Amino acid sequence: MLSPAEEVHDRLIDYFDALYHGDVPLFTKLFHPKACLFSPTGGELLVLDVPSYLDIVAGRQAPAARGDRRDDRILSIDIPTPTTAHARVQELFLPKRFTDELTFIRVQDEWKIISKVWHFEIEPVD
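Request: output the structure for the sequence above.
Response:
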């Protein structure tokens, strides 16, 4: 049996895979249906529900399809209670590097992302 931190870690690997491959069905499994997503990057707050976010994912070319290099990082995982967890991660979606703050809840014996707050910066070209 996996520890809560190992379970969240595994969900983060799934999250990175979903981002890199543009995998809408996997995102649907990862996000709680009532999750909210936020980005203040650029000065105006962007707020999305899960269906709106999945429409964006479905409508863009995935990094894997473009042959982009992959650079995923788990910066931290915190499990403050048996039903809540927080993770800070980074990933590359050229030309942007994203830092995501993910909040998980444990419902029906599964960890689900209930909120995502992200910021991005333009990645310098090598």
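The chain has a mean pLDDT of 96.
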